[in-house]
Amino acid sequence: MRDPERLNDFYEELKQIHKQNFPDWRFGQFMNNFFRWLSYSKHHDGFYPEEDEMLELLREYAAGGK
What we know:
globular, single chain, mainly alpha
């Protein structure tokens, strides 16, 4: 079983990315836009990444999706 404590750092960074880059977006709007970008631009299914990889992808998305 994965260590549930890993989620604290993940959610803290997710919160910071949301607040710093998309403060006007509702959470669902943020996630929907991110997962759409992930699917169409990166051809990646959001179901499979571990938290560390998901944070890398979120950082890339927040930096402009490049």
